[in-house]
Amino acid sequence: MLNALSNTADQLKNAEPIAAHPDRIQEQIIDNNAIINDLDKRAAALEAIKSAAKDVILKAGKSDEPAIKEIKKKLDKLNDLWDEVQKNSKNRGRSLDDALKVAERFWDQLNGVMKALKELQDSLNAQEPPATEPSAIQQQQETLQEIKQDIDQTKPEVDSVKKTGKNLMQLCGEPDKPEVKKHIEDLDNAWDNVTSLYVKREQNLIDAMEKAMNFHEILQNILEFLDVAEEKFANLGPIGSDIDAVKNQIRELKQFKSEVDPHMVEIEALNRMAHELLERVSPDQARPIREPLNDINRRWDELLKGIVDRNTDLENALLKLGQFQHALNEFLAWITKTEKTLDEMRPVFGDPQVIEVELAKHKVLMNDIHAHQTSLDTLNIAGKQLMASERGTENARVTQSKLDNLNSHWEQLHDKASQRQRELEEALKDAQAFNQEIQDLLMWLSDIDGQLVSSKPVGGLPETAREQLNRFMELYQELESNRPKVESVLQQGQEYLRRSTEGAATNLQHNLKTLKQKWENVLNRANDRKIKLEIALREATEFHEALQEFVDWLTSAEKYLSNLQPVSRIMDNVLQQIEEHKQFQKDIGVHRETMLNLDKKGTHLKYFSQKQDVILIKNLLVSVQHRWERVVSKAAERTRSLDHGYKEAKEFFDAWTDLTSWLDEAEKTFASIQQMGNNPEVIKQMLSRHKEFQRSLGAKQSTYDTTVKMGRTLKEKAPKPDVPILQDMLDELKNKWNSICNKSVDRQRKLEEALLFSGQFKDAVQALIDWLDKAKQQLAMDQPVHGDLDTVTALVDQHKSFQEDLKSRAKNLQSVRKTANDLLQTANAEDAQHIKEQMNILDSKWDEVSTLSEQKQRKLEDALRQAEQLHKSVHMLLEWLSDAEMKLRFAGPLPEDEATTRQQIAEHELFMKEMSQQEKNKDLTISLAQEILQKCHPDATPVIRHWITIIQSRWEEVSAWAQQREQRLQDHLRSLRDIMELLEELLAWLTGAEASLLAAEAQPLPDDIHTLEHLIEDHQRFIDDMTRREPDVEKVAKAFSTKRQPTQQQPTKGGYDKGRTRGLPPRTSTPTRGHVEPEIKHPRARELVDKWRIVWKLAMERMKRLQDKLNYNRELERIKNFDFDEWRRRFLGWMNNKKARIMDFFRKLDKDNDGKVPKAEFIDGFLESKFPTSRLEMERVADVFDRNNDGYVDQREWLDTLRPDRDGQPKTESEIIQDEVQRQVAKLNQIVLQEVVIRVDPRVELEVICQSKVLKVINNENQRQVVRN
Hints:
Layout: H1 2-13, H2 22-60, H3 66-125, H4 134-171, H5 177-234, H6 243-260, H7 263-278, H8 283-320, H9 324-344, H10 352-389, H11 394-453, H12 462-499, H13 506-562, H14 571-608, H15 611-672, H16 680-717, H17 722-757, H18 761-780, H19 789-826, H20 829-889, H21 898-934, H22 941-1002, H23 1009-1039, E1 1041-1049, E2 1072-1080, H24 1083-1120, H25 1124-1137, H26 1142-1149, E3 1156-1158, H27 1159-1168, H28 1175-1185, E4 1192-1194, H29 1195-1202, H30 1213-1227, H31 1230-1240, H32 1246-1260
Antiparallel strand pairs: 1-2, 3-4
Helix pairs in contact: 1-3, 2-3, 3-4, 3-5, 4-5, 5-7, 5-8, 6-8, 7-8, 7-10, 8-10, 9-10, 9-11, 10-11, 11-12, 11-13, 12-13, 13-14, 13-15, 14-15, 15-16, 15-17, 16-17, 17-18, 17-19, 18-19, 18-20, 19-20, 20-21, 20-22, 21-22, 22-23, 22-24, 23-24, 27-28, 30-32
């Protein structure tokens, strides 16, 4: 009971930690309930034991006896163990019930919440991009609010799951805590993803609403302004006919122009905002924006053109009325005002949008200057005409001086405006380049941030973790290498801000702030990731170093256990072995904590490492756990063996020590006995004491026999080095025993002789008769003497001792007879008659004892003969059975060919004949054993029965193996015949199939689609037929396959898997590590497998060629009806679904950022982008994009081809300038035109200037559309 309760207590103490999954907890509850039920069953037995113990204690009376104290101690221990087991089992039951409730609630809630979060995430991802109309955006915001309500409703559930998960982590064991923690982290990540998606969507809609409202507000204001301005311009009336009216109209026009010009900035801002809105919308959504915008641009251009035309008409009218001087003064005043305006303009740096506004303002000024070009020319013509009419007069010289002054101021103004134009353009170019650099850095940081955010599980192995850290350090080094660049950009931006006026470069300031924040965030994340990877590497290294150290200890422990000497049966040796094992157990106890820590760390790594590492870590832990359990099990088994060996050795040693001590004391007693003398009374007393000693010696006979038997049993179990020591102990005990027995007999004889010589004839005769009666009684007992060899030998030795005693008594008998003869000569008749009667009784008893001794001697000789015969037969039969078992167990695998199989069948038939011969020996042996068992000594009965059982069971086992072997060989022979027939049939079919495939491959493939489809159908039927034959090939391959060393198998995919037979590695799409690849040695079977692979490869290649040809022809047929508009709609829809911008896609294609992509790279980029298309189709598409046939697709061709509606967009600034110049050229003659050209730029022609400006603006806008005028 103590052992059982101790085992139960250990089972509860070392019970498996509480799991986190309900099914595992239920299994643990079942196990705990089984323990409780077992305890309930043991309760009655416990009460019975306690009651019996109390009865023993009460009967003993004295409580200070060692045995009573031991009983009380064990009883107290039993009660304490019972209470502890009951308490622990109930506590574990309650803990398991609580854990089950929490686990069921946690996993149910977790699954529901994760499903809800997945649906919310899908809903947010499925939202359309922000619209451009405020009403549509408002609808999108309302939809988002509905999602927000669902998110708010989910938040308490998320908190509840996290709280339940924390409670579960407190209840479950250490191995399952990382899994629960990982699921809680996954829940947090899913919640963060949903909330971040919602915040991002909400902010996008707010920004879109703000931009849309701003755009429509500006649009409405401009429309209202245009209505008022057009009406006001229409009400200016016709040109006046008198000077005052014309002057008044000029003033009104100037006033009107001053009201109109500031709106140029609004028009520019409106076009820019429209461009930003149109970049992220579909053509259908763009129409409501583009149509009113085109109308506004058209009306604005017409209003400006009307102002310029009216100004020209008014100035011409003023000159026609003779107001040259007034017109001249007005023009000079305008020049002075314009120069002042140019001087007041402040430089702006770094912000393209602000510079574009400044450029727009400057365009107003430049347009005004160009508009006054006609007035200047008109004034020059009028002045020349005036000078011609007043030639040679003072007025002519004054007029000439005024004209020269006018032209000089005009050139200065023109140069200053041109210089300002160049400065702004250069500033815009630098700002765009700088802004592009910022955008490039932001995009680069976004890519880096994306890589950092999408962090993969860390490596669980040192190699994987180190490789991850090295790869990350490349990214980190890239960050560090770009640090000077980022800092330089930030410093340059601050310099731009310092040089600009306060509040002018807000966009630049915002971009710099964004860049700085992004840079700091990325650096922080990179540092966090670096720390995380370094920690992961350190943990993986520490874990694997600790694991390797533990594995080394396990190896040494296994080596120690395997090299242990057998348990000794010598007390000193076994005590030394116990002490050594205690030290080893202490070492195991120390490493038990190491194993727990390894399991804890390994479990943590399993849940937070890469999948491929998790498998290896799991396998390592399982292997180490199994080895650890084996070591612990072997150590426990060694402990039990040592305890058992110590118990046996102590039992024998104590018995031997006690007996030898008693024999030594007896030896000393014999040595200290005084001389007998002639006093009859003294001799009688000595004889009486000696009889008491002989009774004690006889009582010790059973102890001696038991001790000797224990020694012999111990000698059989003991290792070889202990056998001589035990034999010496047995010999010493035997010698001492025999010595004491001999001395006792000799002492008895001497005392009887002394008694006889002292005149006590009657007493001497009576003592001899008593001994003979006792011997007769022992010999007359019909006790069996048959049995095993050891028992019979012990009985023979005992009888030999008796015979020696009988021989020594014969001398006493002779002395008694001699004394009787002497007494008969001197005794009277009555005494003589009495003496003769005693001697007759003595002689008859002596003869009877001698006869009984001889009879027993003969019985013992017969028993010894049968025992030796049985011993020899049993051991010969067991030896043959062992050899037979080895032959059958290591017969090897079944052969691959029929000849070897027949040879093995013949050899097995010989074995069966030999077995039938041995069966006779077995029957004789068992018959002899049964015969001996009928007349067996009680001590030998268990041994004889054990031999009978062993022989019968092992014979039946060997017989069953032999019959199974015979049946397997016969079945294998029949299967070989069937397999060979199947092999030949398959080889013939494969040979014909190979020839058919080679003949078909020699023929060219047709171009007709219908014919190709028929060929594919026919070939598919062939493949199906081949697939049906695959099990037969696998059957043949398996029949002739043997396993060889593991090999690294390359992955296979698709239809080619079907070509692998079962004689080859299993079909898989992943590499198989450590797979034992079968080896086929049979030549015909290997030929079949090789032929199968060849035919299968040919079949797959032909199917691929047919399918490729069919796909190619279908693609050609489809390309004949290629519609680029349909392709463009498909591509734009694909881009819209990906929520990507077309310019971003072009930038990905333009790897060297030179604004153009070679057609080959253009096609490859599309094919790599996963866009559903083909190379033939993309070749047609690339030809459409390459409008100028230069072999490249540039940005302009990309945009114009994808957005053909751009043809209806407003003209660019350069196009307006060019149109205006051409209109002015048409009015002037060739001479005046040449002067204008030279004044603008004396180096190039006007057309070249205009075209270069267009190209310059397009390139400097850096993937932005040209600023509309």
